[in-house]
Specification:
Elements (H helix, E strand, L loop, with lengths): L1 H13 L14 H9 L20 E10 L3 E2 L5 E13 L2 E12 L1 H6 L2 E10 L5 E10 L2 E10 L4 E4 L3 E4 L9 H7 L8 E8 L2 E17 L2 E12 L10 E7 L6 E8 L2 E11 L9
Antiparallel strand pairs: 1-2, 1-3, 1-15, 3-4, 4-5, 5-6, 6-7, 7-8, 8-9, 10-11, 11-12, 12-13, 13-14, 14-15
Length: 283
């Protein structure tokens, strides 16, 4: 039961965004440099579809767990919310205010309460972040910090903790998800993604595997199946594999996510959604 509780609550947040790809930690200078070199000279695609998401978009996922020999648990372990909360200004830069909330419900909440908040402030023109905030409450564990991205000088800064060199046009754990949605994707594509989290640089690539059609509580959708992986195998520790089903249209809206790790899998399914306003630029 202890393993089950830890597994459920840890993966609630991981399956909602890209955090299941790597084990984020403060890296040594040698690791930071090695990660930077992994994407050296690699062309990072520019955003193509500026209307992939809009102000007010709201996605609510239910999170379910399956374990070998147990099967799907008949209760929902938690919710994962992704939303474009509005526009904010950060250092005179107009930004999308992106928010993610993950929280446990029902029995899981009673035995191990989880309430995680993540915020990213993503430039409305360049689609890279200027500021990232994380506030985690999992059982008795607490973590709260802010990372500032100096995109001009390619630095990631956590005041009083680190100021490190990072990638050009680097993404954080939440903005990366929205950035990928702005790209034109086809099966067989591999997209390089410069990513930073909590003092570590990670050279990610997003593989577009195939087309598929899936049914979730929010409806039936024609999708692309994509997988974020480490660009250089063995460079850093992974936490299993993660697959995302995103709509095969200009929205690239996520509808299902499956995170596989050695002891089982977690599935996040879209329960309901509200599309955002994409005409705000014209007003």
């Amino acid at each position: 039961m202890k393993k089950l509780r830890i597994y459920i609550t840890t993966c609630i947040a991981l399956t909602i965004i890209f955090s299941g790809v790597v084990f984020a930690k403060l890296q040594t200078p040698e690791q930071l440099e090695k990660a930077l070199k992994a994407l050296e000279g690699v062309e990072i695609p520019r955003p193509v579809n500026r209307n992939a998401f809009g102000i007010g978009e709201y996605l609510d996922f239910g999170v379910y767990v399956a374990l070998p020999g147990v099967g799907a648990i008949p209760i929902m372990g938690g919710h994962g919310i992704l939303e474009v909360a509005g526009l904010r200004t950060v250092d005179s830069k107009r930004c999308f205010h992106l928010r993610s909330k993950a929280y446990s419900v029902g029995f899981v909440k009673l035995v191990y309460p989880v309430k995680d908040f993540i915020e990213s402030y993503m430039d409305v023109d360049s689609f890279y972040p200027w500021l990232f905030k994380k506030n985690v409450r999992e059982g008795k564990y607490r973590a709260k910090f802010t990372i500032k991205f100096d995109q001009k000088n390619h630095r990631a800064i956590r005041e009083g903790v680190y100021n490190v060199k990072t990638y050009e046009r680097v993404q954080d754990i939440l903005s990366a998800f929205y950035y990928v949605r702005t790209l034109n994707l086809e099966p067989g594509d591999t997209i390089p993604l410069p990513y930073h989290d909590n003092g570590g640089n990670y050279p990610i690539k997003v593989i577009v595997h195939r087309r598929d059609t899936v049914s979730v509580p929010a409806g039936r959708f024609a999708c692309l199946v994509v997988e974020p992986v480490m660009a250089t195998p063995g460079l850093f520790q992974r936490k299993g594999r993660m697959f995302l089903w995103i709509t095969d249209d200009e929205k690239k809206m996520p509808v299902m996510m499956v995170s596989k790790i050695p002891i089982g899998s977690v599935v996040a399914k879209l329960l309901e959604y509200k599309l955002g306003d994409t005409n705000w630029r014209e007003r």
